[in-house]
Design goal:
- By secondary structure, this protein is of the alpha/beta class.
- It has 2 domains: 75 residues, no CATH class; 306 residues, TIM Barrel (Alpha-Beta Barrel), CATH 3.20.20.70.
- The protein is 40% helix and 14% strand.
- The protein contains 18 helices and 12 strands.
- The strands form 2 sheets. An 8-stranded parallel sheet has the order 9-8-7-6-5-12-11-10.
- Strand 11, helix 15 and strand 12 form a beta-alpha-beta unit.
- Helix 6 packs parallel to helix 7.
- The longest helix has 20 residues.
- The radius of gyration is 26 Å and the shape is globular.
- The protein starts with 18 loop residues before the first strand and ends with a helix.
- It holds the Pfam family TAL_FSA.
């Protein structure tokens, strides 16, 4: 049943056939009638988590908060109702309009408040927090925000309880005690229900070598895949440790689809497919190789080698690497990326295929790092293919709000608005007078 305002009817305690557990009446009153309609139990109660969630987030509404699905379990004569975190749900345990969800890459509360009703997650990494917001006077109006904690307090208000907030740990190479203290601070602000701890892949870096990225030109001597196993798997170990301690983890910095099956072993809540940098690098490498194949001019391979060093595919120890080896390594990389059309989405396709086989029903893939005129339309086209339609509930599309907003419009919107506004202005009624005066 649905009320005139579009919200689900809640349980009428005066008419219910259930015996309500004493002290649970106010909580039960928030339930939609559909939740209890089919139960044959004689008693009704809510879980401790249900009460905790409502006490935290339910003060402004008469139903259950957004971001939680309603689950029931009947044992003998008692039906117990729980609230389970699921950003695919709106208030009252109603599913969002589509299983495909959207997210904002922004730590700017002003931006997030504009798109909050449309998104299910906000992602904050240090670059987004400090470079794009706190230290950006155009975004951080009047320098009002000075710390990450201040930003998170405001983001939690702007996004509301229905949005997760992914916050990246400051130093993945640090002591676990310090990391847990940092996570506890974020959890105190956002609550454990909204916080998702963002843990990066660490690659060949360690506590001893991570500082090399901040020295000189910031390039490593060794290649990105030449680290010790303990260092290369540090991010995995940290992600799994946080999961085992009860935290949801956004396991980030995933560019290649072969990262996905190993990342899934850490039981992350989110995995990622970064699109833009990988697609740009693929096209640049193809261009160098095609130019060499057409001309046999080795300068193209030398330029390719320089590009691979600058982009961390090779280390500075490889600056004089022989050109045949450079060419062979590049052809191998390009062969790994030849999957379907040249739309930059091959990593998304293959990661979704891996995700579809998992025993992790709550894990979602975040498609991130998009720009330009083609990436978002290409992603929407890919997701409309029959293979991927059943996987929409496993996908979260994220971008900065300005990029997302670009895809809400069309040239024809302007064309038709011109026609409609002109028609209203010429109409002989009060609305026309108001439109004319407001546009003059």
């Amino acid at each position: 049943m649905t009320c005139a305002n579009g919200t689900a009817d809640r349980v009428d305690l005066d008419a219910t056939r259930f015996e309500i557990r004493i002290g649970h009446e106010g909580y039960v009153r928030r339930l939609p009638e559909r939740v209890t309609r089919t139960s044959t139990a004689g008693k009704l109660e809510v879980t401790d988590r249900f009460r905790e969630v409502v006490d935290l987030f339910g003060e402004d509404h008469q139903d259950t908060p957004a971001g939680f699905r309603i689950e029931t379990a009947t044992h003998g004569s008692v039906t117990s109702v729980d609230l389970v975190r699921d950003i695919g749900y709106e208030r009252g345990g109603t599913p969002r309009p589509t299983p495909l969800l959207f997210s904002a890459d922004s730590a700017n509360p002003y931006e997030v408040s504009d798109c909050a009703p449309l998104i299910a997650n906000v992602t904050c990494n240090p670059g987004i927090v400090y470079d794009l917001f706190i230290n950006n006077p155009d975004a951080n109006i009047g320098g009002h925000f000075t710390t990450l904690d201040e930003v998170l307090v405001e983001l939690s208000k702007a996004a509301g309880p229905g949005c997760d907030v992914s916050v990246e740990i400051a130093n993945p190479y640090g002591d676990i005690k310090e990391i847990l203290e940092e996570v506890a601070r974020y959890e105190e602000i956002l609550t454990r229900h909204r916080l998702v701890v963002k843990v990066p892949h660490t690659g060949p870096l360690s506590a001893d070598t991570a500082g090399d990225l901040l020295k000189g030109n910031g390039l490593l001597r060794k290649r990105y895949n030449s680290g010790a196993p303990r260092d290369m798997l540090r991010g995995h170990a940290l992600a799994r440790q946080l999961h085992d301690l009860g935290h949801r983890v956004n396991f980030t910095l995933m560019f290649e689809p072969h990262q996905t099956p190993l990342a899934l072993q850490a039981r992350p809540y989110f995995i990622n497919a970064f699109v833009r940098h990988r697609a740009d690098a693929t096209r640049r490498m193809r261009g160098f190789v095609a130019a060499y194949d057409a001309t046999s001019d080795e300068q193209f391979v030398a330029d390719l080698r320089d590009y691979l060093v600058r982009m961390d595919y090779l280390g500075t120890d490889d600056e004089a690497l022989d050109l045949l080896t450079v060419l062979r390594l590049t052809r191998t990389l390009l062969r790994q990326r030849a999957d379907g059309p040249d739309d930059g989405m091959d990593s998304v396709r293959r990661s979704l295929r891996w995700l579809s086989t998992t025993h992790l029903p709550e894990t979602r893939l975040i498609v991130c790092s998009m720009d330009g005129e083609q990436m978002f339309p290409d992603l929407m086209t890919m997701l409309s293919e029959p293979e991927f339609l059943p996987l929409h509930r496993r996908v979260l599309v994220t971008a900065d709000p300005a990029y997302l907003a670009r895809w809400t419009t069309s040239p024809h919107v302007v064309t038709y608005q011109r026609r409609f506004l002109s028609a209203v202005r010429s109409a002989p009624d009060a609305l026309s007078a108001g439109t004319s005066s407001s546009s003059s």
